Amino acid sequence: MSKETTSFVYVTYIRSTPEKVFEAIMKPEVTRRYWGHENVSDWKPGSKWEHVRDNEQRTVNLVGKVVEVSPPTRLVITWASPSQAADPGSYSRVTFDVAAFDDATVRLTVTHDELQAGSDMAKGVMQGWPVVLSSLKSLLETGQGIDVFAKPKAA
User: Model's pTM, two decimal places?
Assistant: First the structure.
């Protein structure tokens, strides 16, 4: 019996170039500035990637493989918790599609699919992507990301 899956699609428009947006997704020195993590890989299809927390412990929070790399327009990776990495059924997929929108704007579409419906991972993804991608947009447009670990202020 197959598990029910869900997906999440997030679209944002960023005043930047496709090259800078693509670089911001892949380069550890940039991802740490808006995500608090580094995406670490050699970015070749079939290679592993790790999502490493930018702290003293260097905790690996996510793992996966690079499925497709087509700079500066498309990146596809698999995504799983390190504790579930041995289970092929635990992996979901993230696709980053980067497209020029006009002379100074990029449309970034992030599709996170093959998520187990109702899972903690699906819940985390639904909450996490909006703040991470907002921080990416802020970094590229203003030079400063937002604190993705901040908790909402009480009303």
Answer: 0.94
